Amino acid sequence: MSRAIVTVWKKEMRDAMRDRRSFMAAMGYAFFGPILMAIAFFFLIEQLSDRSAVAIDIEGAESAPNFAQFLTSQDIIQRQQAWPQGQQPITLSIPETWQSAMADGESVEVILRADFSAQKQRSDIERVQRAVQAYSTQVASMRLLMRGIEPQLVSPLTLQKQDLATAGSRAAMIMGSVLVFIILSVFWSGMNVAIDISAGERERHSLEFLLAQPLSSQALVWGKALTASTFALFGALLSLTIIPIVFSFVPLAQIGISMTLTAPMLLSMFLQLIPLALLATALQLFVSFRAKNFKEAQTYISFLLMVPMLAVFGVEFARIKSTVLAYLPLTGQHQAFLSLIRGEALNTVGVLVSALLTLVLSVGLLSYIGRMLKSEKTVFGL
């Protein structure tokens, strides 16, 4: 690394450290983000592991006492109080013809009325549905036995599930959002610094002064890029340090998940984030220098931050299984992180190729920015 780049890096680091806004932005995202994620997981686990009784409105329970007793055994009881404001009632209607239809071996239509789009009541509605289905299966088996027919005859196949998922693979399934958060830390933590040392310096008319010094535009760009990358990696390091501490207090074991982030795993993640931090900084500097002013740069970069989110979440929700993803920038780091969480062996070739491509893109983009700074249009924001 040339002395000119180191000099620019030291100068920009001193200026950035004086700016409390940039320092707090780098630290704030990495510090408060894991806490907010942990709180969200607390509510999720509470909802998934909640086995308290479901109180619903049961109409016509007197017509089917056995069915009502079965529902009670499944912790589905008659509601004794009014529904809270903002919640739609869950009502199970049993017809008066229940007894005669059961005696004649006929089908009985039971009506379940609820708001099936309500997220907070989804688990309660599903529990009622499962209970009704279980009772229906039980009655069907009894009817077959009364007619001298073995119930197994109408069920020639029995599916026995043997879950081979490990605690790590379950953790990867639900902790994918946390991994995305770690990756995004390199984009968020250095963002304010990247904008300030590019569009900000141009607005303060200090960029022309720097370009007038006896150093090349490439050295200037690399010094600025290393400054923003330092803040980006500081945020990533803070995230990797805080997340294991915060999530050690989250009762993931209640939903069959075990997440253990050892020191070698965290070190591996940090090393893989180094080229990604440089790419994030290069993209932010490019957008900032292309913008006309500081506010315009902030607007453009806010849209730029959606790119890594859409790329990673898009792969997750679309369930794309292409092996090419392990060799690409951004998705390669995400795939490697998933392997670490699952306890699988890392695709070393994929990690190296992804890192190399990330560095190549970063170097190419920074070289192009250096050439941009030779133009008055870029320097003066014309």
Would you write up a description of this structure?
It comes from Idiomarina xiamenensis 10-D-4. Keywords: Membrane, Transmembrane, Transmembrane helix. With 382 residues, this protein is mainly alpha-helical. The protein has 16 helices and 4 strands. It has helices at residues 3-18, 20-48, 65-73, 98-103, 122-146, 167-174, 176-188, 191-203, 207-211, 217-247, 263-290, 294-304, 306-318, 331-342, 348-372, 376-379, and strands spanning 54-59, 76-78, 91-93, 111-113. Helix 7 runs antiparallel to helix 13 (306-318). The longest helix has 31 residues, at 217-247. The chain is elongated, with a radius of gyration of 30 Å. The two termini are 32 Å apart.
Unreliable parts:
none
> Within the largest sheet, what's the order of strands?
2-1-3-4
- Share in β-strands: under 5%
Give the biggest sheet. Answer: 4 strands, mixed
Q: Please estimate the helix content.
A: 55-70%
Q: How many DSSP H or I helices?
A: 16
How many β-strands, per DSSP?
A: 4
Calculate the mean pLDDT score and round it. Answer: 81
Secondary-structure class: mainly alpha
* Large-scale geometry: elongated
Count structural domains: 2
Note the run of SSEs as H and E. HHEHEEHEHHHHHHHHHHHH
Rg calc: 30 Å
Protein name: Na+ ABC transporter permease
Transmembrane segments: 21-45, 171-195, 231-253, 265-287, 299-320, 349-369
Organism: Idiomarina xiamenensis 10-D-4
GO molecular function: ABC-type transporter activity
